[in-house]
Structure formats: C-alpha cells, structure tokens
Amino acid sequence: MKIFLIYIDCCTDKTVEIVKKLSRKHQKIAFTVHKKRQGKLVLINQILAASKTRLVLIANADNLPSKNAIYELKSKMISGVGVVGPRGVCVIGKRPCLTEKITCMLWGWHHLIALKKPKILSFMLIDKNIIKSIITTCPVDEPAIEADVLRKGKKIVYAPKAKLFLKPPTKLKDYILQRRRIHFGYFLLRKHYPEYRPETMKIKNLINLFLKDLVKKPLVTICAVLIEIWSKFLGYIDFIRGKKGTGIWEMAMSSKGIKKC
C-alpha cells in the first residue's frame, strides 16, 4: 500500500526529478505529475479520494514540521475529532523586516487564540470519515475544512507541541497579496457557510492581544492593523467584482525557500 501520495502541480523546479529518485528507493511513495496547474484545493480532494486510510495528513510543499509533529497530531486524533492542526512558528533572520515582525506577531496571536478556541493551518491531520472532500471555489482551505467540521458537529483540535516552521514574506507586496487572498476567501466562504466565523477574525478574541502589543511594539502593531484593513478592503473589492475563487493563486515568492529552523 502506498502511504505517501505526492501531487506535483506543474512545478518548474527539480521537484519531479527528486520525487522520482525517492519513489525508486522507497516503494511506499506514489506520485502524480500535473502538466497543467490545478491548484491546492483540487489536489486535496484528489488526495482524500485516493487515500485508503482513515487518517490523512495534508502537507504543502513549503511546510517544514518539527520532528515530533506527526506524532503530536496523531495523539490528538480521538473519536469525534475531524481535524487536528499544528502551531505556526516564524523562521526569520537576525534583522527581521517589517513584514516578518508583523507575521510573527500575528502567529503569536493565532497561537494564544487557538489554545482557547482551536484553529488549524496547513500540515493538518484529517479524519476522512468526516471530511471526504472540500469546496474548490474558495481559496482558503483550512477555514473551509474548519467550517465543514463544525457544521457536522465534530471537533477541531489544536496541537501546540506540533510545530510548523514557516517563512514570512519579506516584501510588503507579497504580504498584502497573501492577506488579500485570505480575506477574499473568507468573503466567499460565507456564501457556503454563513454560520462560520474564524476565531482569529473575531474582534473579541483580538482586542486584548492588540492592546498588549500596542504598548510593547506600537509601530509594528499599528502597521499590522492598517495593512490588515487595506488588505480586507482589497479582498472585498475582489469579492463584489465577482472574482472567481480557486486554489490557483499568485504565489508570494518572498515567503518561499525555507531551509532550516
């Protein structure tokens, strides 16, 4: 039985060459190469459909998990749980730029909120008996999975000991590109799940965190809020203009290339 399913979505680097070598060495690896880009959402559904196991781990190409991450996720997957997610940890240089500082601050907020009201992010463990597929018309896959799990009356679990190391964008335009897509995705998601609101977008969960960081690092905090408002406005413009939501999006290149943690 193939345990590792790798979907290569129109890659232009050496991914295919590397995966071919791995598959020849390890028989439990299977891979599919898409010559035409299909996007993450389609790939997730293909993975869920192809998997023969109940538990499915979804991992992005730029995910760098801690060594114990899979164990920690699996230890939280009990009866009634639909999805388990890790803690996002920023990997930054010795002299972080503004967008790196903002991203690290926001991931810190995400962690504190998720400890009380679980949230997930990429590199997630899914119970396929609960989540058989996700909608492909909304470019925010993690919230779409959360919304579906909650609608079915199942649980979302946060595993803070499972760390996922992420590289923040180093360019402001890339950061805004990411946040714009996320807000646009949330507006689209409301059409499918009007009852769902992400915990990290609720003012009541953010106000105390905002006030604390406003005292500690006022410039970064104020910039973060202003950029977030602008990004949400741009996302709303995309929404009212009828932009199509897909898993194919423009990549924020300055957030790629994470090598170590």
Explained architecture:
The protein has 261 residues and is α/β, with parallel strands linked by helices. It has one domain: Spore Coat Polysaccharide Biosynthesis Protein SpsA, Chain A, CATH 3.90.550. It is built from eight helices and seven strands, in the order E-H-E-H-E-E-H-E-H-E-H-E-H-H-H. The strands form two sheets. A five-stranded mixed β-sheet has the order 3-6-5-7-4, with helices on both faces. Strands 1-2 form a two-stranded parallel sheet.
In percent, how helical is the residue content?
40-55%
Distance between the termini: 32 Å
Instruction: Point out poorly predicted stretches.
Output: none
CATH C-level name: Alpha Beta
What does the largest sheet look like? Answer: 5 strands, mixed
- Tell me the β content: 15-25%
CATH architect. name: Alpha-Beta Complex
The total strand number stands at 7
The total tally of domains equals 1
Principal-axes geometry comes out as: globular
- Identify the strand order in the major beta sheet: 3-6-5-7-4
Classify the secondary structure makeup into a structural class. alpha/beta
- Rounded to an integer in angstroms, the radius of gyration calculated over CA atoms is 18 Å
Mean pLDDT: 88
Number of helices: 8
CATH topology: Spore Coat Polysaccharide Biosynthesis Protein SpsA, Chain A
Q: What is the element string, with H for helices and E for strands?
A: EHEHEEHEHEHEHHH
